[in-house]
Amino acid sequence: MIEKSRNPKSVISLAETGTLISEARKAEACRDAELLWEILAPIWPDIEGPPEIPDLAPAEKGELLRLCGFFLGYYGHLNAKPDYQERGKDLLTQAIDVFESAGLDEEAARAGLNLAWRYLQQGSHDEADAIIDYTKSKIGSRRSSTVYLRLKLFECVTASAAGNYQKALKCIAALKPSMDKCDDPAVRAQYHIEAAFACAETDRLAEALEHYQNAEKFAKALGNERFQAIILGNIAFVLLKQKKYARSLKQIEKAIALNRNRTQNGFLAHNFDTKAQALLGKKDPGRALLAIDTSLEMFRQGEDYAGHCEAIFNKLRILLKLGETEEVLMLFAELIDLARTRISENTARRYAARFEELFFLPQARGYKAEVSEFKKFILREALVEANLLMKDAAKDLDISQAMLSDILRRQFPELFDELGIKKRKSRKMKK
Fold this sequence. Notes:
CATH topology of the domain at 1-141: Serine Threonine Protein Phosphatase 5, Tetratricopeptide repeat
Low-confidence stretches: 1-10, 425-431
Number of helices: 21
Number of strands: 0
Largest sheet: none
Strand content: under 5%
Helix content: over 70%
CATH class of the domain at 1-141: Mainly Alpha
Order of helices and strands: HHHHHHHHHHHHHHHHHHHHH
Mean pLDDT: 85
Distance between the termini: 76 Å
CATH architecture of the domain at 1-141: Alpha Horseshoe
Shape: elongated
């Protein structure tokens, strides 16, 4: 754990500034929050107050502000600390002002990227996009450094965050030639993580696992346990989509162990959310409820509102399996209020639409029509939960795969198009 204050010398010489910045950048690349704060301690003896930046030239002053802002926001996200991200954003904004006033556009762009990440990890996608658009307009066509690659990579991140995975995949493909030439392992690790996430969300699971293996290679080159924990958590998510629940649990427990070693509650919150979903898949809603409550307890301590909302929605699914309808309705009200006030009205409406899909709502259409719609609802739910795998859906419905296929073809052929399921061509006997 990081101590809140220490008593090293609070002023450093100009000669020491260059060394401090260089070492801090290395810690930043490895996402080692504890080491970064230790390096910054000479200018920041009390983390609860502002850093004590010496009177320096704009390039050095702005970079120290940027590093301090990155640290405070990132540490706040890791450990679910309230107000840390807001204070980090303030320091990053100061850094941008210092850089821009001196015409240091590339340095300002790096700080802008840090600022955009802070907004994105709070669930504020529109604000993050606006910052990136402004930053790109300032840096123009100067593409000689990794800053431009990071800006383009962030477009992939925001596309995935908005659920536009096809756009994210196009962005990933366009970046591949440049990434293959990039000599920054941190950028390449992040690239493969984002590529894997987009592939996983579009059911390109083999590609996702390959990207995660590449990401792990670069993370190890950095000695970065933070990236390794992210990769383990995301591999668990891919295995979850493949309905390999036992293997998913094994991977997520490894991620939990790494994050617990560094007391990183922000990421632990996501880990326990994944664990809850795997337990729900194993038809163990009781243990899943314990895991999701642990996740929510951590999310409530911080400012990761997007993750918080998703965990609440997963708890709704668990409570429905337990038959706790009254609790479901009360929690749904909390979800909509959080999404509307902390993210956006559109996000709240998206959750409302997803919530509606969890229920069958009779509409007084007559007995036969209601029964038909209810059967269609059950089939759709089973197919979605089985990631559109007919064999797994049939198993969950306790019928044969042939029977499920026959029911769909004869009674509900529209589900093939609605869910994007490819129809098998019928085999004809050769004469």
